[in-house]
Design brief:
By secondary structure, the chain is an alpha+beta fold. The chain folds into 2 domains: 2-72, no CATH class; 81-308, Fumarylacetoacetase-like, C-terminal domain (Fumarylacetoacetate hydrolase, domain 2), CATH 3.90.850.10. Helices cover 16% and strands 32% of the residues. The protein is built from 5 helices and 19 strands. Strands 1, 2, 3, 4, 5, 6, 7, 10, 11, 14 and 17 form an 11-stranded mixed beta sheet that branches. Strands 8-19-18-15-16 form a 5-stranded mixed beta sheet, with no helix packed on it. The relative contact order is 0.19.
Length: 310
């Protein structure tokens, strides 16, 4: 199943199922929480018992055409967004790097159709996109072994880890998480695909376009530390609750700047595609295109991919 939050006309946002026929509302079949995040967390917790009714709705419930609704971030304010640092081999022959993660502010979350707004007071070298697979947790998950990793996974979504960088790949303010957590710097969506529909999350394609230019184009089988290891690592340190998110890191080949007036498209195989726009109140300009120098661990691999048209 594919879960979404959606708005139709001037009505409040509500949970639904994304189907080939459109969006099927499910508010009458689930318990509404105090917030939309609570509602989605409740669906995750009660999914096993809800599945028969939701399956029936997906098959025969009244659907609203997708063009008549606005999708929102499927998790508006996760309790935690835990992000991998790097985590892709990027065609490099080198020694393995230790797994590491950082927390990104949940208040940075926006959804499909929203605007990534670049901050006015930061003075980084460039603002960049990092298109990533994200794991949606079923909790409480604590000390989950990699052999039992599936018990902690409700499903998958996509996240753009927008990053403010001072130079090369150094995050703004000498690696501070603040450079990752400005408002609007965590576009999430377009939906949550339940884990049963993706047998192996390390066999998915990830693509990202900036004004039609393909920048990210990689597969998740290039992860240095695959999903089972990420689950084990994260839950060994902290308890992950239902609706929390682990972003799996990105392949940095193809990084480029985001700047005022651009339109970006982000797609993950079997999950879906979403479009956002970029706004910069200061109208700053950087050289357009893929950064071939310090912003890619392997610029020669980027050149080969571009030359081949892949």
């Amino acid at each position: 199943m594919k879960f979404v939050l959606f708005q139709a006309r001037d009505l409040p946002a509500a949970p639904g199922l994304l189907t080939e026929r459109g969006v099927v509302p499910i508010s009458d079949a689930v318990t509404r929480g105090h917030t939309l995040q609570d509602t989605m967390g409740g669906i995750i917790d009660a999914f096993d018992s809800l599945r028969p009714a939701l399956s029936a709705l997906a098959a025969g419930g009244t659907a609203v055409p997708l063009n008549d609704v606005q999708l929102r971030a499927p998790l508006p304010r996760p309790g935690k967004i835990l992000c991998c640092i790097g985590n892709y081999w990027e065609h490099a022959e080198r020694e393995p790097r230790p797994l590491n993660m950082f927390l990104k502010s949940p208040d940075a979350v926006i959804g499909p159709g929203d605007v990534i707004t670049l901050p006015e007071f930061a003075d980084p070298y460039v603002f960049q996109h990092e298109a990533e697979l994200a794991i949606v947790i079923k909790g409480p998950a604590r000390r989950v072994s990699r052999a039992n990793w599936r018990s902690a996974v409700f499903g998958y979504t996509g996240m753009i880890d927008v990053s403010a960088r001072a130079e090369g790949r150094r995050t703004w303010r000498a690696g501070s998480w603040l450079g990752k957590s400005f408002d609007t710097f965590a576009p999430l969506g377009p939906c949550i695909v339940t884990a049963d529909e993706i047998e192996d999350p390390n066999k998915l394609g990830v693509r990202f376009w900036n004004d039609g230019q393909l920048r990210h184009d990689y597969r998740t089988d290039d992860m240095e530390h695959p999903v089972p290891e990420l689950i084990e690592f994260a839950t060994a340190a902290i308890t992950m609750n239902s609706g929390d998110v682990i972003a799996c890191g990105t392949n940095h080949e193809g990084l480029g700047p985001l700047q005022d007036g651009e339109t970006v498209d982000f797609e993950i195989e079997r999950i879906g595609r979403m479009t956002l726009t970029v706004s910069d109140p200061l109208h700053r300009k950087w050289e357009r295109g893929i950064y071939m120098g310090a912003d890619s661990t392997n610029p020669e691999a980027v050149r080969r991919r571009q030359a081949s048209g892949a």
